[in-house]
Amino acid sequence: MGIESEVFGDALPVAERYAAFLAEAGVERGLIGPREVDRLWERHLINCAVVAEAIEPKASVVDIGSGAGLPGIVLAIVRPDLSVTLLEPLLRRTTFLNECVDLLELPNVEVRRARAEEVAKEFSMDVATARAVAPLERLAKWALPLLRPGGELLALKGERAAVELEEAQPVLKRFGVRTAELLQVGRGKVDPPTTLVRVVAERMPRHAKGSRKKRSS
């Protein structure tokens, strides 16, 4: 448990309870595949926890399409200074997330059952996170309206990160983002390092607001 202890520190017992819940209830309810149980720590928990390296202290975070709570719950565990909203439209998943929050006693987490476009006018967050939700060109349309000017989208991506960033350029240009870049976090802790697409938001143009389409189920 060397790397796990290094990454989670004093929060390791909470992370262990979360891992156990994922391995049992998460698998039973179809939120985690059975084959993922043996690699929960490296592939999921640590992979998500190192995203905290890219987040400023005391930030407000919205995790879009939170699913089983990856990375939102992991970030709330490793960074109790963060205020985390888990945004998820499906009832069975929000039920699971609420059970996680109660089990792990996470006072810095709120679960919200909604689609991103339904709450855009309510949110002005510092950071939006997402993992395995959608290609960047679609994800940006959902995430950027949730951010304050200067807020950041941190999208966990795999081998196609650079391709997705290139394909999303027309959408990012329309939203007038300040910067968009690839970033790697977790070097020496997870192999390969976690790849993020970091997009820094600007105020959203009116024509971009009118272009949002409803997310499909």
Order of helices and strands: HHHEHEHEEHEHHEEH
The strands making up the biggest β-sheet line up spatially as 3-2-1-4-5-7-6
Question: Could you tell me the mean pLDDT?
Answer: 92
Helix content: 25-40%
User: What proportion of the residues form beta strands (DSSP E)?
Assistant: 15-25%
Runs with pLDDT <50, length 5+?
A: 205-217
Provide the structure class: alpha/beta
Largest sheet, in brief, is:
7 strands, mixed
What radius of gyration results from the CA coordinates? 16 Å
| Strand runs, count | 7
Q: N-to-C terminal Cα separation, in Å?
A: 39 Å
How many helical stretches? 9
User: What form results from the Cα inertia axes?
Assistant: globular
Binding site for S-adenosyl-L-methionine: 65, 70, 116-117, 131
Organism: Actinomadura rugatobispora
Main location: cytoplasm
Family: Belongs to the methyltransferase superfamily. RNA methyltransferase RsmG family.
